[in-house]
Every structure is written in structure tokens, then in C-alpha cells.
Design goal:
heterodimer; A: alpha+beta; 2 domains; 6-stranded mixed beta barrel; 13 helices; B: alpha/beta; Rossmann fold; 6-stranded mixed beta sheet; 4-stranded antiparallel beta sheet; globular; disordered N terminus
């Protein structure tokens, strides 16, 4: 029998059992759609985490008190006051640290800001002009803190875009922090980030002002932000910073360092690993449903072979070879999964369109999971179609004819 | 030795010492024992015998649906007793037309689609016209698009005969063709078979219906897996 004839015969028999064919197809449909949608959701959350972390600046190194990430010994918690302005001065030495372009000491605390119209609780950082460079930020209006502001402990404040709009404050307005009046000198450009660690909800004052009047800790800093001259120089910048800090702290054994240096790329790769794991988990669940759909196809094909035993016997008597019958049943199983797969792609794409608009969950549809889901569906259909088809092909014609 | 075969002509069917055994050891049963038979081109042979006589086994072997345990089977001069399953399928498709007691029509297909079936397995191109022509031959030219359920028993069996005929086979093998039919329908079907035979077609009817014998040119009886009697009509 020609392949076209076999396909026609297979499709006719599927159409002869419409309800059953549709239900079998549904199993594959939802499996494929689930794979596409879950991988899409995983991809979207991975993208958003990556974007959020990248927006913090990929050239950024953060020095924190406490043990380094190298070595097995943790020297102390991050609350240790081991970072000082001497470290800042040492790291700012361009001769010893040619690959570090900005050094921004930071002392941070949670404060309440009060404007004429409202108040707002946010994270306040005391820092230096380099904060802007280290964080790769820019101003939307006004100016950032200057060196003069730091040396005079000026009562000036720079607000994040979200903070400014929540306070209803603009450049030139006065707001109070702990009953101390501050003049708003600038608003940061928005990064577009949202949720936890919102980079648009913060306030920055001169480091000295923060230490003297708001957060305390004169002479020590909580963290030092470093910016490498480029992301390619991140490694050498890391080594230089490590060397300088070991020297200023008088530590000879690097494993006993009382500080740690973390780069955003480390954070990034960790976060990506986490989202990837979640994506794989979700996709595995979806893949299992696809497998279950495949078993459904096999089940129906076995029922079909049993039910059509006498038809198979007749076809054999009329001259169908075992190969003809094998092909017919594989094509029937393949057609069920192919149609289910295509409808599943359509459903998955529809979910990718509807879900972000109704459930506020981002979905990023990429071609790879679509191709993989369809390929898996077709393979599943063929694999699970082979056994029933073999049964059909091997039926002895006389016994099959007698089965009525 | 069989009778009624012109000696100078190779018979269409030559069974030589065919045995068919089922089971093994003590449970072994011989459905056919040392069975020999010749059927000439153009014969209408009735094979009769009670149930359990080996009739069905004979039918399966004659129809190339099963292979004998021992012995040789020549079909039109070709030894078909040792062919593979696929080769047997080709012999069935090209040389033999089957008519079954249960009609074996596919209920979802129209009459001509049923008749077309064997042509699907030989890649014929003008299937519809061949099917329609076969239906006309059995007097059902006006029932081409009818489903089996819309036809009487006699008409259904005539569709089955058309299906056996459509490939222009060397042999039509009918297994109890009247077994499911009332007397009138039986006559209708037997008349069609007789007409086909008079047109030159070799036909073997396996039956226990005594009505069949009068139209047969020769009747053989099978009992306990052996040929017991031959009678030329």
C-alpha cells in the first residue's frame, strides 16, 4: 500500500472515532502547552532576575566586612566594623589599583523621610560622589552629592524616582530626616526595577552627614562599592582590591581575611542557577504530563487494535502485509500526537499571550521549547504507537477473522 | 489420486500430502492428515463436511492464510507452502478472493469503498471504476454508495463477492457463504457464484449447506482431516 493510501486509511479510521481521537489528542495538547508555558514563565523570570542584577552594574564589586568568600574560615559576621576610611583611601590609590575606577564607601540604614505632604520609609545610604559611578546610575534632574558636600557634611539629599514621587518632593524642596532638614538636590533616573530591592526606592546623603547625624559609625563604613574600569577588568580589580585590603589590615594569610569581596557576576550566576533549577523543575512536571499523554495514546491504540481485530484480519486476508498494518497503526498514533502537538503549540502560545495580561506573570516564549515539545510529542506518539502497531501486524489472520 | 483433472493441464491448485498439526506432544491434534487435492482451472468445487472435520483448516491453507505443517501446496504452478507471511499476503491479494460467512464488510465504509479495499494493497489507480464494475457484475450497480447496514443480508454478501472479484483473482474461496442467510438470500448468492463460474472463474465453496451441492461441478467430503469421497457432478 502506498504511503499516501496508508495515511488516508489511518485518518479515515481516526475520523470514524471522533470523540476518542479528540480526547486522546487532548492529553498531548495539554502536555505540549504545559511545557511551552512553564518554560516560558521560567525564561521570563530568569530574564527579569538577570536584568535586575545587571541593572546594579556588572562592573561592581562589593566589599563587606567579615570573611572572604575564599577559604574555609569565616572570620566574622558582616556586622564587624573592619572597613574603615583608611581602606577607602587605599583603594582609591590609582597607582596600586589601576583597574578600579570608582570607590564608594556606603553606610546604610532604614529611615523615615518626611516631606510637607507625606512621609515615606526607605533605605538611606551615606556615600560619596563615586556612588553614582559604582552603581552605574544617572540623574534625571538636579545634581548628585559633590566632594564638597562630603567634606562639609552638607544637609543635602538625593532621592530615587519612586521615593521622590511617593514623597511628592522635587529638586529644591526641603524634607526632614530624624527632625533634621535636608535639601533635595537631585532625583535619580529610574532603573525600571520593581519589587524587592527596588533600585528606585532609596535616598543618598553625603557619607559624613550620615555618619555624624543619621546612622552613626564615624570612621567605619558598612560596605565599599568598587567599580572596575570595565567588566573585562573585573578579575584584576578584584585581585588589586584584595591585595590592598589584606595589606591595610595587616593580614598575611588570605584565608583569615576579615572582609569579603563579591561581584555582581557571582550574584548573577547564582541567581541564574536558581531560576534555571526552577525552570527545569517546572518543565519536568510538564514533561511528565506529556509522557502521560503519550501513554494515553498507547492505551487508545491498544484498545483500537483489540476492537478492530476482525478488521485487521480482513485486511490481512485481502492482502495487507504485516508492514502495511504496522505503518497504518503507527500513522494513526503519529497523527494523534502530531495534531495534539500542533494544537498544544497554539494553546501554549495563547497562554503566553493571555497569562501576562491577566495574571501579571511574565512569559517569554522562545522557539527552542516549542521545537523540543513538538519533537518530544511526535517521538512519544511514535514510540507508544509502535507496540500496538506491532500487535496489529503480528495478528494471525485466521484468528483475527474469527474474533467476532 | 484426484479425479476430474485433465492430465495434460497443470491444475490451478495441487495439494500434495498436506498435514496440519496443532499443539504438541500428547495434546497434538492433526486437523489435516496426508491430504491431497487437485482443483482444475474453471471448476466450482464444493467442500463439505461436519464441524471439526478439518474444513476450516483446509480453507485456511487453500486461502494462504496459514501454512501446512508438512506437504506441498502448488498454486498455479508455484509452491506456496513455504512462503513468508509477506509473500503469502501478496498471493492472497493478487490471486485469491475471499467470501466469508460473516460478510466481513467494514460498517463505516460505503459499498464501493468496501469493494475497493483489496485494490488499496496493490496500488491500483482506477479503483473506483473497478469497484463499481464489480458491484455491477453482482447486480448491485445501484447500491454503490450504500453502507452495509442499509443493505439486506443477501446484498451484503454480494458486496463481499464483488470485493472478492474486484482484483480479478484466479480463485474465489467462499467459506460458508450462505451460512448467515435465509433461503431466498442463499439462492441469490449461489446464483451469483454459479454465474461467475460459468464465466470461467474457479470457485471453491466450503460449506455444510446441501443447497450448495447442486450448483457445484464436483463435491468433496472431508472427515477427520481426510478426503473421504469425491463425486463428479
Amino acid at each position: 500500500m502506498s504511503i499516501l493510501q496508508t495515511i488516508e486509511t489511518g485518518l479515515r479510521s481516526l475520523l470514524g472515532h471522533r470523540l476518542r481521537s479528540v480526547l486522546t489528542t487532548l492529553g498531548i495538547l495539554f502536555g505540549v502547552a504545559a511545557v511551552i508555558a512553564t518554560v516560558g514563565i521560567g525564561q521570563a523570570s530568569s530574564d527579569s532576575v538577570t536584568a535586575r542584577i545587571t541593572s546594579l552594574g556588572t562592573n561592581l564589586l562589593t566589599v563587606s566586612p567579615g570573611s572572604t568568600v575564599f577559604g574555609g574560615v569565616f572570620g566574622g559576621g558582616a556586622s564587624a566594623n573592619s572597613l574603615t576610611m583608611r581602606d577607602v583611601a587605599g583603594l582609591s590609590d590609582r597607582q596600586n589599583a589601576p583597574d578600579i575606577s570608582a570607590v564608594a564607601p556606603v553606610s546604610q540604614g532604614r529611615v523615615s523621610l518626611v516631606s510637607t505632604s507625606s512621609n515615606w520609609s526607605t533605605t538611606l545610604s551615606g556615600s560619596t560622589p563615586d556612588w553614582l559611578i559604582a552603581n552605574a546610575r544617572s540623574m534625571s534632574s538636579g545634581t548628585f552629592i559633590t566632594s564638597a558636600d562630603v567634606s562639609t557634611s552638607a544637609q543635602v539629599i538625593v532621592l530615587g524616582a519612586t521615593t521622590a514621587s511617593n514623597l511628592g518632593a522635587g529638586v529644591g524642596d526641603l524634607i526632614t530626616v530624624k527632625q533634621i532638614p535636608f535639601q533635595v538636590i537631585g532625583i535619580l533616573a529610574s532603573t525600571g526595577s520593581q519589587g524587592f530591592g527596588n533600585q528606585d526606592d532609596l535616598a543618598v546623603v553625603p557619607l559624613t552627614t550620615a555618619q555624624d547625624e543619621l546612622i552613626g559609625g564615624v570612621g567605619t563604613v558598612q560596605r565599599i562599592l568598587l567599580s572596575a574600569t570595565s567588566s573585562a577588568n573585573l578579575g584584576t580589580a578584584y585581585a588589586e582590591a584584595n591585595q590592598i585590603l589584606l595589606q591595610t589590615h595587616g593580614i598575611t594569610n588570605p584565608s583569615q581575611a576579615d572582609f569579603s569581596i563579591a561581584s555582581q557576576t557571582q550574584v548573577l550566576s547564582t541567581a541564574q542557577a536558581v531560576t534555571q533549577t526552577l525552570t527545569i523543575l517546572l518543565a519536568s512536571v510538564a514533561a511528565i504530563s506529556l509522557l502521560v499523554g503519550g501513554i494515553g495514546v498507547m492505551n487508545i491504540m491498544l484498545v483500537s487494535v483489540t476492537e478492530r481485530t476482525s478488521e485487521i484480519g480482513l485486511r490481512k486476508a485481502l492482502g495487507a502485509t504485516p508492514g502495511d498494518l504496522f505503518r497504518q497503526f503507527v500513522i494513526e498514533a503519529g497523527a494523534l500526537t502530531a495534531v495534539g502537538g500542533l494544537l498544544g503549540v497554539a494553546t501554549g502560545l495563547a497562554a503566553g499571550y493571555i497569562v501576562p495580561r491577566t495574571a501579571n506573570i511574565a512569559v517569554t516564549i522562545t522557539p527552542a521549547p516549542i521545537a523540543i515539545a513538538v519533537a518530544v510529542a511526535v517521538v512519544v506518539g511514535l514510540v507508544f504507537g509502535v507496540y500496538p502497531a506491532l500487535r496489529a501486524a503480528r495478528l494471525a489472520p485466521i484468528e483475527a477473522l474469527r474474533a467476532q | 489420486m484426484s479425479v476430474g483433472v485433465a492430465p495434460e493441464q497443470e491444475p490451478l491448485i495441487r495439494l500434495e500430502s498436506i498435514s496440519k498439526l496443532y499443539g504438541s506432544g500428547d495434546a497434538q491434534v492433526a486437523a489435516l492428515r496426508n491430504f491431497s487435492l487437485r482443483v482444475a482451472q474453471g471448476e466450482l468445487l464444493a467442500v463439505m463436511g461436519p464441524s471439526g472435520s478439518g474444513k476450516s483448516t483446509l480453507m485456511n491453507i487453500l486461502g494462504c492464510l496459514d501454512s501446512p505443517t508438512s506437504g506441498r501446496y502448488w498454486f498455479a504452478g508455484e509452491d506456496v507452502s513455504r512462503l513468508s507471511e509477506t509473500q503469502l499476503a501478496h498471493v492472497r491479494n493478487r490471486r485469491i478472493g475471499f467470501v466469508f460467512q460473516q460478510f466481513q464488510l467494514l460498517p463505516k465504509l460505503s459499498a464501493w469503498r468496501n469493494v475497493e479495499l483489496p485494490l488499496l494493497y496493490r496500488n491500483a489507480s482506477d479503483r473506483r471504476s473497478l469497484a463499481v464494475h464489480a458491484l455491477e457484475t453482482v447486480g448491485l450497480g445501484n447500491r454503490i454508495e450504500h453502507r452495509p447496514t442499509q443493505l439486506s443480508g443477501g446484498q451484503q454478501q454480494r458486496v463481499a463477492i464483488a470485493r472478492a472479484l474486484v482484483t480479478d483473482p484466479d480463485l474465489i474461496l467462499a467459506d460458508e457463504p450462505t451460512g448467515n442467510l435465509d433461503t431466498a438470500a442463499s439462492r441469490e448468492v449461489l446464483a451469483v457464484l454459479r454465474d461467475l463460474n460459468q464465466g470461467g472463474r474457479t470457485i471453491i465453496v466450503i460449506t455444510h449447506d446441501p443447497e450448495v451441492a447442486p450448483i457445484a461441478r464436483r463435491t468433496v467430503h472431508v472427515r477427520d482431516g481426510q478426503l473421504v469421497q469425491q463425486k463428479a457432478a
